[in-house]
Amino acid sequence: MPARYRPLFRDRQDLLRTHQGLDLGALATARVLRRLLGAPLIAGRHTRLLVDLNRSRHHHQLFSLVTRDLPRAERQRIVDCYWQPYRDQVSASIEALLAEAGRVIHVSVHSFTPVISGERRECDIGLLYDPGRAKELATCRLWQQALHTRLPGLRVRRNYPYRGTADGLVTALRRQHDPRRYIGIELELNQQLATATPVVRQPVITALALALAEAVGGRRNA
């Protein structure tokens, strides 16, 4: 939380530590995937209770209940200082990788709360994609199959617990890039898994990385 906005959250410290404040375990997972796959990592560093980096500029959930009633100029300052630089950094990285390799598989790592509104989500891993983009569909199918082979008891679902075409950074990037060159996938981890002990979590993350590498190789050879 930037020092300028800490007074807004002085009485909300508990909220900051919940799934409303951050995707619990997502950054730790992304760091392991970066190491295992040798991929670049661009991480959001500020709580989404300040501004949600995964929401479009005019989305009604860009700002939280805490910040949405700030003066317009202050909200614009937040966008200019925190939201826009992150989006620009991701976009520039995608453009550079496309120029270098001709194709990018972009995995945006998130986590989800296991129970919401009293409903338990029956899933360990969610792979979100646009079913209308053939390469995303093929990659996620192969990734799911490879995960089932490596960890048969792992509950892996596609386009669950969210739709892969809902508002988000990956959705915005799809509008900018050829579907043959840009493959955007959101990886969703159940927070019970994402925050488990290393003994429980590490084999799953390792399997995620190896299965993705296998899926990419299998799709290339298909």
Describe it for me?
The structure is a single chain. With 222 residues, this protein is an alpha/beta fold. The chain has one domain (3-221): Aminopeptidase. Helices cover 44% and strands 13% of the residues. It is built from seven helices and six strands. The protein has helices at residues 13-16, 26-37, 72-101, 134-150, 169-174, 191-194, 198-221; strands at residues 104-112, 115-116, 119-120, 125-128, 156-158, 182-190. The strands form two sheets. It has a four-stranded mixed beta sheet with strand order 1-6-4-5. Strand 4, helix 4 and strand 5 form a beta-alpha-beta unit. Helix 2 crosses helix 7 and helix 4 (134-150) crosses helix 7 (198-221). The chain is globular. The protein starts with 12 loop residues before the first helix and ends with a helix.
Throw out a few tags for this protein.
4-stranded mixed beta sheet, alpha/beta, 44% helix, globular, Aminopeptidase
Tell me the layout of helices and strands:
Blueprint: H1 13-16, H2 26-37, H3 72-101, E1 104-112, E2 115-116, E3 119-120, E4 125-128, H4 134-150, E5 156-158, H5 169-174, E6 182-190, H6 191-194, H7 198-221
Parallel strand pairs: 1-6, 4-5
Antiparallel strand pairs: 2-3, 4-6
Helix pairs in contact: 2-7, 4-7
- Could you spell the SSE succession in H and E letters? HHHEEEEHEHEHH
Distance between the termini: 46 Å
CATH superfamily: Zn-dependent exopeptidases
Q: Output the CATH class name.
A: Alpha Beta
Count of domain modules: 1
Rg, alpha carbons: 18 Å
Share of helical residues: 40-55%
Strand order of the largest sheet: 1-6-4-5
The third-level CATH topology is Aminopeptidase
Q: In percent terms, what proportion of residues is strand?
A: 5-15%
**Architecture per CATH nomenclature, i.e. the level-2 architecture:** 3-Layer(aba) Sandwich
Shape by Cα distribution:
globular
Q: Tell me about the largest β-sheet.
A: 4 strands, mixed
Strand-pairing-aware structural class: alpha/beta
Give the low-pLDDT segments: none
Quickly count the helices.
7
